[in-house]
Amino acid sequence: MEGVNEKENEEVEAQKHSGPSELGKWAEIQDMLKKRVITEDDFPWRLPSSQAQHQQLRYVGGVDVCFSKEEPSMACGSLVVLDLHHALRLVHQCYTVLTLDVPYVPGFLAFREAPILVHLLEKMKSTASPFYPQVLMVDGNGLLHPRGFGLASHLGVLANLPTIGIGKNLHHVDGLTRSGVKELFEAEENRTKDLITLRGSSGFIWGVAMRSTQSSLKPLFVSIGHRISLDTAIKVVKMTCKFRVPEPIRQADIRSREHLHKHQIGRTYWWQYVGQISCSEVPDFVRSYLVQHFIRFSKLFQKLSTLRRETQTQY
């Protein structure tokens, strides 16, 4: 009953945050896009090997969206690309910070986060970057989802990219539960295994629960996103794990939080600076313009303030 209760709770939460008509539209879109998911290898590259006649996998991307604790609607999307041929060296990073008006609805996360990530991918593609990812890891599930179409699959279809879903928590689906997976990992015959196949009551294989490192106490949940087989997805994840979370996802998470923190510091400073400007110093319409365009001018005023402090120190 554990999985059934969670599904009912998700449906209740969904109704709280979005009207039935909106959820119906989202469900229709999911069903339409789901038909386009490819669950086998559909790319020109091969995994790194000694055979040089094939194009090899080199650039692995990772995406993440983090949110401000102080302003829950403020989000930072990040895209990083690592080079497999050079010990997972970071070769590309880009970010976008924006305010979201789409609520989080369980089961429909992609409608909140996918547009941000698609924007970052399109921005990178428009520059003809040589580091555009050959495969993308997504901080979210793929097929391992109550509707069989999580963020990783949604983003993969929209961007037409091979994607891998990396979940830190298990969606209760088709008889699979957290407690059940925990029991499987703790079973005597499985204690030395690094992964367990997640086969539902229907017999369908939703993904795998993986111990990414020997020291990992909690498993990751790996599933097909789009244009990749589960077997290849598992191999790519293993190639990119230094810690529990695969490095592309870990770096995207760390850097998105750092970028959002810097953005908030700059924003706070800007509001303080503008707030100190008296009406006698600038006309109201100029003050209003500054407030509306604080992001554009925040860095400039930080530099001016630094120069002013240095000048005051000299004299």
Automatic annotation (TrEMBL):
Native source species: Herrania umbratica
Gene3D superfamilies noted in UniProt: archaeoglobus fulgidus dsm 4304 superfamily
Region (Disordered): 1-24
Source domain of life: Eukaryota
Cellular localization per UniProt: Cytoplasm
GO annotation, biological process: DNA repair
Predominant location: cytoplasm
Keyword Hydrolase listed: yes
Keywords: Cytoplasm, Endonuclease, Hydrolase, Nuclease
Protein name: Endonuclease V isoform X1
Gene name linked to the record: LOC110410459
